[in-house]
Design a protein that fits this description.
The chain is mainly beta. 7% of the residues lie in helices and 40% in strands. It has a six-stranded parallel beta barrel. Strand 113 and strand 114 form a beta hairpin. The termini are close together.
Length: 1672
Amino acid sequence: MRKRMTSLLLTLVMLLSLVPAMGVTASAADGTSYTQAEIRNYKSFESQLRSSDSRDLKLMENINYTVGIDDVPINVICNQKLDLNGHKITIDASRRTGFVHLLSIRRGEFTLYDSQGGGELAVSFPNDDKAYSIIMMSSEKKDEPSKFTMNGGTLTKLHPNMTYTYGASGCIGDDYFNKPENGKRSQITINDGTINCPYEWDRSQSLLDFEVEAMPLALQLLYSNLTINGGTFNGIVWTDTLWRGEQDTEPRVVLNGGEFNSPFVVEGMQKDATQIVIDGAHFKDGFHVNNGYSINTDVGTVPVLLLKSGVFDSPDKNPKLDIYNVTANSYGNGVNSDATARAKLEMILHAMKCFPNSAIKVNGKFYTSENIASLVGKNNDDFYLKLNSNTPIEVIRDAWGVMESVTLDGNPINYAKDWQGGFEEMDNSTAHTLTFEWNSLADELVKAGYSYAAKCEHYFSGSTAVQQTDTIDASKTSHTITIEKGADPKVYSFALHLNMKKGDENIGIISNEHIVKLVVNQAPVVEPDPTLTGNVYYTSGIVFGRSISTGTGNLPTVLDSSKLRYQWQRSTDSGSTWENIDGATSGQYTPVAADMGDTFRIRVKVTAEGYLGEIVGAALKVSKAANNNYPAVIQLEAVKDSAGTYTGFEITNFNSDCEYVYSTTSTPDWSANQISSATVTGLTSDTTYYVFARFKETNTHTAGSIVSKNSIKLFENVPLQYMLLDGYDSGNTIYIKKGESVTLKVSADPSNANSWNEITFKDSSTTGTSNITISNEIIAASGTTATPFPKDHTITIKGVSTGSATLDASYSGPTLPYYGRWDVVVYDDSTVADALRLENVYTYADITLSENDEADLPIELPKLLPENSGYHLEWRILKRGTYGATYVTENDNIKLEDGKIKPKAAHAASEKAQLELVAVKDGSTEYKTLPKTSLFYVTVTAAPVIELTGLTVAPAKVNLELNATYQLSAVKEPVNAAGSLTWASDKPAVAEVDTTGKVTAKAQGTAIITVTCGTKSASCTVTVGHTHDTDAQPWVYMDPGTHIKTCTAGDDFKVEAHDFNAWTKVDDTNHSRTCSKCKKSGEPANYTETANHNWQWVVDTAATPNAAGKQHEECVDCHAKRSENTVIPMLTSIMVEHLTVAKPVKDAAAAMATTTDSAYTVANTEWMAADGTPLAIGGKFQPGTVYTVKITLETAGADVFSVKSTYNTIEGKTATVSPNLTGDNHADSVILTYTFDATEGTYVPTKPAITTVALPDGKVGDAYSQTLAATGTNPITWGIETGDLPDGLTLVGDTIKGTPSKAGDFKFTVKATNSGGSDTKELTIKIADAEAAKYHNVTLSGAGTGATGAGSHAAGTTVNIYAGTKSGYTFNGWTSDDVTVLSASSKNASFVMPDKDVTVKANWVYNGGGSSGGGYTYYTIKATAGVNGSISPTGNVSVREGRDQTFTITPNKGYAVAKVLIDSKNVGAVKSYTFENVKKNHTIEVVFMKASGNPQTGVFVDVPEGSYYEEAVNWAVEKGITTGTDATHFSPDGICTRAQAVTFLWRAAGSPAAKSAVMPFADVKVGSYYYDAVLWAVENGITKGTSDTMFSPDATCSRAQIVTFLWRSQKSPAAGTANPFTDVKASAYYADAVLWAVKEDVTKGTTNTTFSPDANCTRAQIVTFIWRALAE
């Protein structure tokens, strides 16, 4: 459903004419949904723009249209967009005088744009003296202002004309007669496009000598606000005098751009409000202000015109920038030189405000508010701004003196441009920084030789003189002032003078000051935070890449560890200076490469939130990390020279991350024979070389702990020396699990061996059966020639049984019988301990710890083999004793616990602890040493001494009352530094201090308390006995805005604004006011401020047409008076002398009245025949008819209509004047009525034509009323020509009415007769039988003796009931869940019998104070709940007198409480309610609504969820079309009268005001709820009544009638062609309407083949019809 759907009248036309051209719906940024549609002709152009929903329209072809007599201006009533799309709309309205504008923007925003370029909307109007415009701003509602936005395209008024009537004649204007009354203004915004309304005048004269508002105008502004950001204006732009109302908060006119090829004229401007801002516009034919205000009386405090930037030019001698009337200032008779100087100064001050921080270029020279005085001219008694220029005048925005910001401690603050500003308040506990920043001079000024002459003056309280002046370099654009910590408490004022100079010469007469006041108070004495105590230590070794953890000890017991803050620091000079490490702010830190080096140290600093001081850890050097990576087996090949001699070798798998050395022995010397590349030459042949490799030492890692070795013999014949096996993990022992195998690669040593005997791998430990088997165990001998050793030979060993074996690479030779020997261990799960070993033996760095530190045990351990052995690795301390070594977790110096090394005592001399890895059995303390293991050493040293670097005491100052005490706080830097504190006072008699720093005030005076630690000291000043006496001191003038009082000690003060009395007159020029509190320093009298009077005219006696008035000037501040008894001229009465109108002549056209008088205008002309028939302008006069003309006249200037006014006769006829003006009464408008003689010829009346085509059916017993209708000359009489009316009905005048008493079809012929003839028509009324009465039972519950009313009763009848009597009881009212009982508190009551059984309960109160057996009085609370929820308890609830009763309310799922009615009074949407101290009967009724529904619409209990009309009813209530029949009922099945139907339609259209005030129907009374709706319906052709004089508002509306109303409201569009209904005849008056409704899905009939036209239209049906026509 659309959010902004308000016009039924226009929406259906749009649906009929444009359904095929409509496209998708798009949403705008403001949330408006626009339906896209195409425009191809004027009809669609008109109907689319009239639409009550938002459209984005695109013009698809050129349109040429001539306005006809039936065409009326288009009212835009919601957001609409029109894309000209490169096409042109040309509209000729030149022959249609009533077509005063094309578009009237009534509601919403109309946006014009042109997506393709070249598009145009051009209109021609009649060439007369009336006002015509293309677009008229005419807001319909004061709080919903209309808007026009132009983003492109062209608006052209063809054949522009002068106008001498109200309103604009041009392209865009305001509706003269629609002035907003304290409402929001309409908005005109031009962003782009062209507006054409050219007009030429006699340019030998000044434009302002003419009535500019009467000229054709491109844009006329009366009441709207105007913003122009771009576009081209070929035509005058004119604004009326610009006023600011209470609703106006922004300037009325903002010109940010636009090119004006014609003059821009401002009629005048109100004072004390900026009305126009110009910032970027280009005026090519001048900018003019016609009427301004004298500055010394009316200019006010702000400029009415703000010129920020723009270009002003003119093609001739006419002014380019004509603002004489804005800047001129009269100083009187010129006899007073002081007044003359003051007037000139005021003019300059105002001119400065017009050009704020701008530069104006006149005749090639730049002027700013600093040197604008040189532009001041004098004309008689006026000073004004001379802007005569032979070249274009340019205004450059923000050219100088523009403040960018003023900040205090980095935060923006307000600042004053005078001495009246406020101040910023702070204390001296910290330093404060004040920074001024401003923009650079404009380039144009710099090129012209200007520069800043800036300075900053400092004022301090206690002196009125400048205390310091900062001269600021001309190139600077900022200035910073620092108020140091501990600065003296006082007021500091800083005045930044941002002035200019040209060359070396200062310019300007007014200082451009920017002022900041800072109030600096003494910081309050705050109990210092406690001092942090304790120490910090490291809980892990300081090794590169290994996380360091920290621990703390001896901290304050109340300190929450979450308050600790860590900061790691780095020193590059062995600990002399420290810098914080970015991001290292936790209790852990991992050293990085930047921490490595001989002079590099790291430490941790710890602080605590809420504590003073810091503790630091010892400065430590970071150790390199161990490198336990395994270098690859070295692959060597011998190298020969060109002669074939061995000279070296090549490392074929050379790794640059490793370091290599060679030797002729099997032991490496890493400092000799280093290898830098893969190839080594220059060696001796016939020599064996050993090559060693390990990973290199780096800045972060030690050299590798694992060494790879190989050898090579530089011989031609190289005998094999050794066999190498690769593929097992532990030294010279091969471990194999029983049943498993290991495959080992065989290689030679030397690697280039080429001679060997046959090799057999075998177990040499036994001659019997071995516990291993060997596969591929034989390597054949090399033979007699040199043969390279096979590189890919492998052997496989399998463990057969547990035990040991000796593997030999055996051969038969003269020396050792094998090339290699290895131990083999075969194990199983029971003997796995025999196989325990490390896969690699890691090297670990030694650790040195102080007694305060801890270190993590290394957690990066080698792998323990075999895996899953049931053992794991742990560190143990090797403890040597007399009987050997043991492995323990604690000795005298360290303890291994929780993965950490915890020192116990420092080692003596060179002692240290050795830690080794051992294999510990899982779940046991049993351990086993390893064949080869990893180890490192730990040395514990004494705790380090932390050096003291500083000492502070807090606070630095303290004031104490006599005998008071105060605890000072001294903080060592760091707090865990060595040394103790000592305290001393230089005057113990004034203030003494104990050993803890606690001070006791002893006598008045000042003492210095000093704390010392080693060579460091700090002090606190203690003042005893001083009490502020600020309040007792006098107020002293500080600056023009404030005064100050100061404590005699100078450490406290108060600042406030001056307390001035009222302004009093000094003389005719000045008045003064005096501060009641302060004096200037050294002056005896209180400070007095003197200023100029602010004069305004005050009317004493208003002028009338009979007498002159009187007025005087009065100062608005001091009320001094001058110019008393100044005469206001008597009002001039208008004499109507040349008013004429063409008299009525048969067959001539009725014409408008005209006049040549200039004092008034003809606003309206209305013709009417003697019989009351109106005649439109242009209509023909009938023969033999008397006509009356009513001519409305309105004043055109200051003259008025009064008792003195005279009115000329027309054709010898004298005017009747309304209103009747007597005495001093006068008016701006009168209506003259002239009655002329009858026209020639004989009057021929129009015979009647009966328009009633059918009559609705009736029912026996139901009231019937139907009015007959006919056209023709009144009066018309009615009668029955033939046949009979139904029994019970009669014809009264033009109405058939009564109550039918007999069923049947009754045919009869009616006759309408007047003086011109008669007409007849046969009609039929069908009367149906009354429905048979339905009977239901009535039960009286609780009735007494003699009760009546129970039994069977017919539905719809009134049932009378009587409660009877009960002995001992008093009747207490009737209650019922089924009906509403009338007079329910009386024994005799009644109700209307519904179509169901009824139970009514009689309630009684026991007279004896109690009910039967209880002795108490009871009252009844009737509890009821609507649908969709429940109340508990429910029904009639008895409550004992004085007791409370609570009711609980529960909505169904998806529903909520809408309201709760207590005794018919709404108490809101509560979930429970308690009746307290019950003393009478009550009712509680609950109404529910949808949980997500509209609270307005969800309360109807008779609108079921899911009903066909549910959404329609909700929509109708939301749109204000209906509010239901009461607070909780809509009555969907209720009938709808003609008055209700028309009112529904009128409200759906937005309740528009009717244009005519003449009601044609006698039965529609003024004040009736449907009065305005009927007027509107008649004007729009929706109804003509049931006769010329009757509307029949109470007649029932049938289905046929309501559909016909809808259809007529759409101008009776073409209907659909398919008729699905057998009961809708083609000849029926409603046939086309029904077919249209079917086509538009307004109705689907009562069945597939019937429409039931004569059936009554229920409230649900009519609301649904309207909703279907409006909703999507």
